[in-house]
Design brief:
6 helices; mainly alpha
Length: 142
Amino acid sequence: MILSDENKKIITQEFFKVYNLMSDTNDISEKLYYFSATFAMVSRVLNIQYDPMLVIIRSVLLTSHSNINSFLSNIINTKKTFYNFPDNYFKMIEDNLKELTMAIEQNNKTSIYEALEKYSVLGYIATGNGNYLYKKGMLKID
């Protein structure tokens, strides 16, 4: 990824702030609210400096957030209890944000892709089919 040091710092500082805010609350709606700042900040930097990796990062974070938000809304609005988030789900999102942040900071493309892959899986669990596969044991998260 080719980013100026300044733009890399803008993203990583914001991601660390988001990580801390998410870690400091137990309210999952509030955690999700803070998480939305990740793809928003990437969008802002994209408006200043284009890099295809930023498009991928933004897309994965946005899609994951959208899936999780829809899933959470379904749980809250329909009071369905047969589907739910895995234990420590939001802790995994937080920890992965920290990993992604450090990977961006170090410009480690492999680690960036690994963190994005994990977000893709975490986001997929927040879909009907993804949750089903998780409960069947086919979809594993660490």
